[in-house]
Amino acid sequence: MHILLVEDDDRIAAALRPALHRHGITTTRLSRGKGAVDHLTDVDVVLLDLGLPDIDGVDVCRAIRAVSEVPIIVVSARGEVDDRILGLHSGADDYLVKPYDIGELVARVHAVYRRRRVGTPTAGGGAADVVEIDEVVIDLHRHSVTVGGHEVALTRKEFHVLALLASSGGAVCTRNRIVAEVWGRTWAGANRTLDVHVATLRTKLGRADLVQTVRGVGYRLGLPETARADVEAPGAAAEPVDSSSD
Fold it and tell me: What is the Cα–Cα distance from 112 to 57, expressed in whole angstroms?
């Protein structure tokens, strides 16, 4: 994923960019609002500060929305209710008040991006929220999964993991991203919990190679059998974890 970061504070930008990179997100940074609309090519999400030195961020938000449907998250120290309402009415998809947790920011970035993807029609005119791979049909809107025409019962967390992978279009989802979006928090045993849910998914779907492990990164959906060397074959299930994390 690639983000356009419109932020005038050098210290914030210097800390934020490597933190996003660790979550698999690259950035283009602008310190001014003027001309932001000229940098939207190949941008997946815009992170927009409101307190810019040359033009108010609200006006930048309106200008971007006038020419593009790219998701916009306002990230600002302006935390009053009226400020948040104005930002959202100006075209922002989300509003996050500084200071914030990087995990929450990443989760919001992926959430607005996913909502835009799901709402976009496919080239063939079908619904973008239905993914079908090898007789496995994942309906993101109805929260249902069928294999060979038979519905498979998944827990809420299992479905959310699968839906996140399905909505990513075959791209790799990092472990941090999956945990942040599905559980909304992280803890010492988060990776082990994720591994258990993936192992259970593979068993329930009866398609061991549908969810592929990308060594040292995370998971992806539906790689061909001739997968690259950095993709591990599905292994045995990890040891059980406390069901309270479900």
Answer: 19
Task: Report how far residue 70's alpha carbon sits from residue 80's, in angstroms, rounded to the nearest whole number.
Answer: 25
pLDDT digit string, tens, across residues 72-116: 999 999 888 888 899 999 999 999 998 888 888 888 888 888 776
Residue 78: what residue type?
A: R
pLDDT of residue 60: 95
Mean of per-residue pLDDT scores for the chain: 82
Report the pLDDT value the prediction gives residue 230, as an integer from 0 to 100: 44
Residue pair 218/168 in contact (Cβ under 8 Å)? The answer is no
- Phi first, then psi, for residue 176 (nearest 5°) are -60, -40
Tokens of 174: 């990092």
Q: How many C-beta atoms lie closer than 10 Å to residue 144's C-beta?
A: 15
Residue 214's beta-bridge partner residues?
Answer: 218, 231
Which of 60-74, 93-107, 161-175 has maximum average pLDDT? 60-74
Q: What angle do CA 75, 78, 84 make, to 5 degrees?
A: 75
Let me know the angle formed at the C-alpha of 128 by 69 and 41, rounded to the nearest 5 degrees.
Answer: 30
